[in-house]
Amino acid sequence: MPGKPRLTYLNGRGRMEPVRWLLAAAGVEFEEVFLETKEQYDKLIKDGLLLFQQVPLVEIDGMKMVQTRAILSYIAGKYNLYGKDLKERALIDMYVEGISDLMQMILMFPFSPPDAKEKNLDSIKEKALNRYFPVFEKVLKQHGQDFLVGNKFSWADVQLIEAILAVEEKIPAVLSSFPQLQAFKTKMSNMPTIKKFLQPGSPRKPPPDDHYVETVLKVFKK
């Protein structure tokens, strides 16, 4: 029997958090190795474990996978979360890419200079309210189904619930004008695997704090 997937990253969200979300949503247990020093990171590179000298690193099915998008698409395909045909996969890819654009802004927010934080938060709010969330509100309303693609739970749904919760941490009332997304959030949060991941003590990481930012800058310093 193959071992659990092994995730190597920092003890924080970053680019590994969507991987944790997707594995958890698929009901897959995993192990984690946390980088805390630049020496640990340099050793991974020296040992040839990081193809492009970047984490996240996920060891799964005998592979040492890097590049977040490749890792996520492999997991989605392996656990039947990637649609039933090429057209559904294309839709999932489009939705995932759009959500990733929004999540990139959230990912970088903790590293904003103090004098730019308010402006960057306003930008996240504006993009969520006017560019990204309206798309998914419209999709759910038009097809009247529980999930984004093919009326079946997929990678796109996992990415969207992660994004909704991440934005709500910063802007609590962000869904007030999106009734479809409110219902989607409730439904997703009550799915057994996701509900378990949202409980205290799960592998889900808390919002980035100053210690996380300091660790990132220390581990990846040039």
From TrEMBL:
Its EC number is 2.5.1.18. Keywords: Transferase. It holds the Pfam family GST_N. It comes from the Eukaryota. GO terms for molecular function: glutathione transferase activity. One of its GO terms (biological process) is glutathione metabolic process. Residues 85-209 form the GST C-terminal domain. The keyword Ribosomal protein does not apply. This is glutathione transferase. It comes from Serilophus lunatus (silver-breasted broadbill).
